[in-house]
Structure formats: structure tokens, C-alpha cells
Structures
1.
Amino acid sequence: MDEIFDVIIVGGGAAGLTAGIYSSRARLSTLILNEGAIGGQMVLTDEIANYPGVEKTNGYLLAGTMKNQAKQFGCKIKSNLKIKTYELEGEIKRLILEDGREFRSRSVILSPGGRPRPLRIPGEEQFKGSGISYCATCDGEFFTGKEVIVVGGGNSALEEAVALTSHAEKVTIVHQFDHFQAFQHAVDQASNNPRIEFIMESELRSFSGNGVLQEVTMEHLPTGKTSSKSIDGVFIFAGYIPNTDDLKGIVQLSERNEIVVDAEMKTSLPGVFAAGDCIVKRYRQVTTAVADGTIASLSAAEYLRS
Ligand SMILES: Cc1cc2nc3c(=O)[nH]c(=O)nc-3n(C[C@H](O)[C@H](O)[C@H](O)COP(=O)(O)OP(=O)(O)OC[C@H]3O[C@@H](n4cnc5c(N)ncnc54)[C@H](O)[C@@H]3O)c2cc1C
């Protein structure tokens, strides 16, 4: 492709779409290259009730609105692709896809987000999609009237456990600590739900079944005692891994493989910015991704002007 874009955005989640809205509205020629489905983790979220100005929505709708907004301002979006090579050092950045297509730009915003962290215990790979899920919105319905476990103690785990009770008969939250790392309203909602039970200070150790998941074993950490439990499904919300594997050695990453940025979302390379769940930060929310995307876009515009 001959065109040299002003901005190429890698990733079309909340951060990337926001950067796309701001950049294209500033009349910068803007292209989003997105690996998976547009919207990223937003489309995995059953209900988003904390996005200001929108009382209650599901992530799919919010993502669709952001995408339309970006397109209305002229942002180009290409999805379901894989970037093979990043050449980000010179004034003209080059991104080469696995299918050989090449895209060039004067600046790049990296917003590849993250993916769920697996437990990495025996049986997890085998029963993924056959009883083990990382997305209540996608798979909750398959467990209508059944009994499921939710692993985790953060906001996602508690909120998705509550969402699962509209399908599952019983939801047991298994958490490794004796307290939750979630906002109090999420803890209250889960605690007050009669279909939710809690097993604290415990970790799953293995999954087993005959073709589909049927049983888990778990360890009570203070006593070391192991037990097994028959179960129809397990939903895992045990943290996330940044999608930065391909960026190792290209931009500076933290020891957790998050992209290191300053307050203006500048990375270690001139003309390369980053935004959203992929950067070093404490709170990963749609609002914070949107804020990062805004800052990255404005910083890219400033870089292009200078
Ligand atoms: C189950 C769940 C519930 C949540 N609930 C809420 C909530 O209620 N409220 C809230 O504010 N937040 C919630 N969050 C968090 C919120 O969804 C995220 O913080 C936010 O969506 C992150 O946006 P992002 O753009 O940084 O990344 P992502 O949403 O991860 O988007 C990244 C995009 O980049 C693409 N990509 C990845 N690698 C590449 C690559 N190499 N090249 C090109 N594209 C790539 C991905 O396919 C994806 O589309 C929830 C998250 C989860 C998982």
C-alpha cells in the first residue's frame, strides 16, 4: 500500500477505538489494525454499568458505538489480521502482516490490550471450551440450570459471578485469599445473591472428566487439605496477560511485559505511543483505557506537528 498514514493504531479495543476517534477527528489519516474482534475485552463483558454517561449497557453495544463513531470521522479499520513484523525505529514506521501486506505511518499507537491469565493446572487445556470458559457473556447460557465455579476475587470475578446467576442454578466462587480485591459494591452484590456461595483460601488443582468437564480438585491453602467437587462448568477470572509478546525487544517492557510509558503515553521509541490495558498501570477499566487512548492520540498529534 502506497499511503503513509499519520497514525496507525494496533488494537481496536476501548483504547484503540478512542485513539481512532480522536486522531481521525483531528483530520489525521488513521488506520486501526486489529487482530481479533473489534471491541476487545468490552465484547466479553455482560454488563457495563460504570461507564459515565451511559447508565447501563452491554460491552458489545458500547464497542459498536465506539467503532461507528471512529468510522464516521474517517478512521479506517481492518480486523482479523496478524502483524508479523514491527519496524518502529525510523521516521516512517512499517507494520507487515502475516499475509505480506505492509502498512506505513508517521506515528504508531500500541493498544493490544490483554487476555485472561490461565491457571496452568492439569486438565485446563483439555477442557477449555468443554466446561472451562474465560467469558461469562459468551458461554454463560450453556450452563442454564447447572452448577458452576467462578475462580477469582477481583471485580471481574464477582461481577461475572452475579451475571452467571441469571443462567446457572448455583455459582461457587473459589478464591485464594480470605478477602476480595474488588470494589465493595461488587462484594455486596455477590454476597447478597442467594445463588452464590464462597470457598475462600482455596485454589483449584486439577480438572477431570469424560470428554467434558465433570470434576475439579481443590486445595484449602491454610490446611493443605485437598478435596474434589463435581461441577458442570468453571469460569476463570484470575488476572490477565498483556498482549505484548511480539513487542519484546521493540519497545521497553516492564518485568510483567507491560509497555512502559510516561504520562503522555510515550514509549521508549519516538513517535510510538501506547494506551490501555497493555501499559504499566494499576487500574484496568474501560474508562482508564479510553483516557489513555485520548492522551496517546493527542500526544501523537503533537509529535506529528513538531
Ligand atoms: C470479564 C470482564 C469484565 C469487565 N468488566 C468491566 C466493567 O464492567 N467496566 C469496566 O470499565 N471495565 C471492565 N473490564 C475491563 C475492560 O474491559 C478493559 O480494561 C478494557 O476494555 C481494555 O481495553 P483495551 O483497549 O486496553 O484492550 P482490549 O479490550 O484487550 O483490546 C485490545 C484489542 O487489540 C487486539 N489485539 C491484540 N493483540 C494485537 C496485535 N498484536 N495486533 C493487532 N491487534 C491486537 C485484540 O484483539 C483486541 O481487540 C472487564 C474486563 C473483563 C475481561
Note: Helices lie at 14-25, 59-72, 124-127, 136-139, 155-164, 184-191, 286-305.
2.
Amino acid sequence: MPDHPDHHPDHHRLGRELGLFGTDPLIGAGLPYWLPDGATLRHTLEEDIRDRERRAGYRHVYSPVLGKRELYEISGHWDHYRDDMYPAMDLGGEQVVLRPSLCPHHAVIYRSAGRSHRDLPLRLAELGGMYRAELSGVLGGLTRVRAIQLNDAHIFCTPAQVRDEAAAALAMIGDAYRDLGLTGRHRLSLPGPGGKYSGKYVAAPELWRRSVALLREVLDASGLPYDAAEGEAAFYGPKIDVQVADAAGRESTLSTVQIDFHQPERFDLHYTGADGARHRPVMIHRSIIGSIERAAAHLIERHGGAFPAWLAPVQLTVHPIADDQHDAARALADRAAARGLRAEVTGPEHGTLAARVRAARRVPYQAVIGPREAAAGHVALRLRDGQRPDPLPAGDALDRIAARVAARGTALWDGTGHAVR
Ligand SMILES: [Zn+2]
């Protein structure tokens, strides 16, 4: 089966069929839950992102999913974004709001200590919850939800560092897309008359001009093709968006890099420069894969449930031909699990060998254990893409699989297997 057929069912149907996520009217519209295989996919994705961020010099923080209304008044969300926010909750004389974004919390964390130019760039990252009061009519699956887990980060830097930091964030997005087997279309999102509602954008023409010029430089230097679109900016600044298409061809934004001169002003952020004076940092908002929900929905549709091996909920399915090989199959799956691989055994109680191989067609690696393999301690692998490497000692086969998984990417095997189709 090819890895990327042209047409896949939408992620709702595949999500149900593959047992990844579900919804229940009693929990509520737009509030999906994650089943064990879906949770494995999500956890793997989240850990991969954290790992990329650690290696790129980001520090991870946690901040609460709600805050006082005043916090969002300062950030500008209350004025410019209130239609998408939940109503405030009265609590002991204060008003508390489910947060519409993580930015204000990270600005406050920046402000929690004195900062010198030597501390910059300070890259704060968080995979955190945020909330959007979507109307129930537009909710569905993982793409229109009311509770969002966002892969977010804010880079606080000097004006001279903005270009390199934004370029590095854009490169991180490209690396992640390569490993995830995704392709996107780059868009420079500008303010303009096409905004959703009047008064959408903060008024500061000079700051907008500087941010747009910087993002254009970053895009031009990257060599990536891009289009510009008016009316698609954030209320506080322009952005580079990476657009992906769903099964029906509808585009949405997955990843983003934004340059923001506005919120550092609103929160009165500063750092001490080499000259000993107080300076205003710039805030770069960036997300590599956007919300976990939307990223998972897109991955499900893009791969038709046949995920890259490192991401697959089950990486290796072991099929004993008959009950006599069950122990040998179990031993192989246990060795795989000890290597950190996700393996399962499907025995004859699940049907004929052909039916079991067919049922596991989305699993990247399958191993059939007959009397000969069980006696020799060998494994004959069948790869999802049709490759059939020569039989290998079990330990060698698991080493090869584990090395591919650790390397990420979409290739299933290093070197040549023997293609059967
Ligand atoms: Zn932000």
C-alpha cells in the first residue's frame, strides 16, 4: 500500500476507525477525548516538539489556563478578541477568564525577573491549554474545538536579534514538517480591510511597518515561495503562517511566526542594555505545529492513518502463524518493548494470517513467525511500503527498526529491502 494515496477519508471517520479520539454530547461539543492509541500519538508528538525546542535553546514553563480579566485587558485580547473568549467568571469579587492565548502569561513570566541583554534571546516554550468560545454549529472532530492544546513559544530578544530568531523558528518548522511528512504553503499575513471585524488591529503604523519589513526579509532569505494576504494578521502584529489543506481541500493555519512590538509595550517589558540603559525587547510568537488537535487531525488525513514509524501508535505487529509460535512471537514483542518500541502480537484467534496482515496494513513493520523463524530466532519483516528485507536475527531486526524510529523522518528502512510490488 502506498504511503500517500491521493484521497483519504476525513479525520473524523479515520479517528473513529483507528480508535484515536471521540466525543460525547455529555462532555460537550468541541471537547474531544483521546483514546489510548490517540493519546500515544499525541504524547509522541508533544515529546518530539519539546525535544526539538530543548535542542534549539528553549526553556519550558507552565502557566495556568486562566487568569484575571485585567491580564487580558492589558494584553489587548479583551478589546480585540473578546468575541472569541469565554465569558468571565465571578470569583470572590474578581473576574477570572479562561485564557484565549498564552502570550500574556509569558510576558508576565519575562517580567518576573530583571533581564540583561546577556539573558537575551530568552526563549520560553509551553505546550499549554487555551480556550475559544466557538459556536456549537461549527464544532467538529479535532479541527474546531473549544479547548485547545497549543505548541507555543515566545522569544524575547533585542531588535538586532529579531531577524535571526525568526529565521531559526521558520527553519524549525521546516525540519518538523520533513520528519512528519507534511507540506505546507507559506503565507505572509498582513493587516488590512479584510479583517473579521472593525477595530481588529491595534493602531501603531510605524511598528506594523517594521514588523512586516522584517518578516519579508526572513521569507526572502529563506528562499521559500510565499503569498501575501491582507486581513490575516494577528491583532498585535503581522505573521508568517504555514497553511495546510484538509481532506476537502479547505486551508487552515498550522504553524506561525509573528513579530510583536506591541505587547512588550503593553506589559512594559525591558532589559538592561550594554549601555546600562533600559531597552524594550521584541516578542516573537512562534508555533511549530500549532494546536495539537489540528496537527493530529492533519496528520491523520495526510497519512490516512499510516503514520511515520516514529509516530505510529503501534510500530511492530508480530504474527505467529500458529499457536505453536505464540511464545516466540510474545518474546519478540517483549524484546521490542524493552527497546522502547510499541509492539503487539496478533495470534490465530484474530483470523487467518492474510486477514491479520491486512488488518495491520497501517502498521509500519510486521513480522511473521513460523516454525522456521521460531527455531532459528530469525525475523522476516514486511514493511508497510512493500519492502521485504532478507530475514535477520531478531536482535538485528529490532536494532534496525529502533534506529529508524530514533532518526524520525518518513523512511522505513536504511539500505535495500526487496520490493515485492
Ligand atoms: Zn503568543
Note: The CA atoms of residues 124 and 401 lie 34 Å apart.
